[in-house]
Fold:
Amino acid sequence: MTFTKYGLAGVAAITLLACENTQIAETPVKTPVAVQELTKDDKFTYANYDEVRMTHLDLDLDVDFDRKVLDGTATIDFVKIKGDAKELVLDTKDLTLKSIEIREKDEWVPATYALSDPDPMMGTKLTILLLDDADQIRIAYETSPTAEGLQWLSPEQTAGKTHPYLFSQGQAINARTMAPVQDTPAVRITYSAKLRTPPELVALMSADQDPYTPRDGEYEFDMPQPVPAYLLAFAVGDIDFKPINDHIGVYAEEYILNAATEEFSETPMMEEANERLYGPYLWGRYDLIVLPPSFPFGGMENPRLSFLTPTLVAGDKSLTNVVAHELAHSWSGNLVTNSSWRDAWLNEGFTSYVENRVMEDLYGEDRAVMEQALDMEGLKRAISEAERPELTHLKLPDDLTHPDEAFTLVSYIKGANFLFFLEDRFGRDKFDPFLKKYFDTYAFKSVTTEDFIKFLHDELHVDNPDALTRAELDAWVYGPGLPETARKPISNAFEKVSEHQAAWLAGEVTAAEIPTDNWSTHEWLHFINSLPEGLTEAQFAELDSTYSLTGTQNAESAFAWYMQAIKGGYAPADASLDNFLMTVGRGKFIYRLYQALKDNGREDWGAEIYARARPGYHPIAQRRIDNIFAEE
Ligand code: BES
Ligand code: ZN
Structure:
């Protein structure tokens, strides 16, 4: 179908909303969503959300594992922001649309609509002609088996081997591969859903659900708090549940359920620390789901149900900062949301900051500083590898080529360090209540970097004008690299590790003589990451035979070691690295490992492993690694 324009939407647009939180008077609104006034500043959506806004999505879907599709209807409630708006524009990607109806005066009639040509990143723009008194659209559709936001696993790809598994990943712009939506973080919707699955499987969503719902193949969900479309999430499989307390628990395949519940047993303390600092958790239950190993992230903050990689289950709670991180998104990100991916640091930088504050609260300053120091090393590397300086600004440029470019350590760690800087300048006694007020003021809203800067100015800076200068602030937000005012985290534990490492490198002690017995994973990571270039094969072998680094079960340590092995040409690690790449799909590890193989003269071997591993990887990981091997 070709695109047709239905006449001009009218220049003298009347804005019905005078201020935030006002509801449209003329249009019947079915859901109590506060419609925020917004300017359109998200180039990764087709939606005309400055004119017409979705407010509620109701899904009624069959989860068809034979055809690997979601098949059913999406019913969309909307309100006109501009009274004379003529069309509703939605994002879709790889959806097969079967019918589109519009409801006017309680009657469903076929709608007039048009589809653009598909764009490989953005998908297909769906423009639906509105009728004067219409307030709902119903779309019958099905997803594609290759939808980037869905991974369909065969029974053989699961731990249990007998049932298939499906999970979704909406962030950043893949909600549109699951349902027609206004796929921008600027638009919030409530949602309800009915999913039909094979009766022996459980369906879960980022919504209200009872962990003890019997398995019968029919599941209903309600998400009464408005959330951006990227937080719409499903998981379907042979999934069991184990509680941690009365409102926190773990979902996982049976093989890992007990271990995961033990690993994450301190989640209630994390929640309490968060609440002490930033106010009540507003979402009801908080559950965790441990996904299959192909999940391409460490974690994903789907509301009420964080998604986690199984590589966090290390046995010693050493990697639980990721849980602190996903939980912290319940304030920064899910409650107060970046209005476009250019402002991703408002989600990820704030969250990384809160994560570290919570880790300090629970485990003390030493662990918090070790995590800051490891992060700072990563940030320096990311800055040095940036393709252009603008990509190291917190406020990202308006010509990002893909939202992926917004999720580097710049948003996370430069963002967190900007907040450390503000904390240091204003003091915790002022900064903590300020952040709490920020979450409160912007709850269930979308914010821009400029909104935050104005809030900072009005709420904190005017009363403390000497705390920082405009130039210092601009260097953080609109300037490249790491500002000189950044904290320099110094971990005493790491200093000691470095001293032992230096003695070993100088040949003064053997590897076995280094007192590593009480080293935490963090100390090991510092030791491995800071190994100098040019280690001899004998030095690699000495470390490896003393400490069994090749094949280590801690995924972070394994990753750090394999990076060094690739750069140093240490071939005895090859078989274990191959196995790691075949069994772990977490992007943070595998993208850099493949890139390192390519950059260190082992492209053919890397490509050979990838050819074997690719069918098991998530579509997002497939796209990213295809690009690594495609680039010259
Ligand atoms: N929201 C992110 C994951 C994400 C980012 C998904 C961009 C899609 C696009 C999540 O909160 C996250 O940051 N996860 C990190 C862990 C964290 C401790 C840094 C990860 O996956 O490694
Ligand atoms: Zn995050």
The two ends are 37 Å apart (CA to CA).
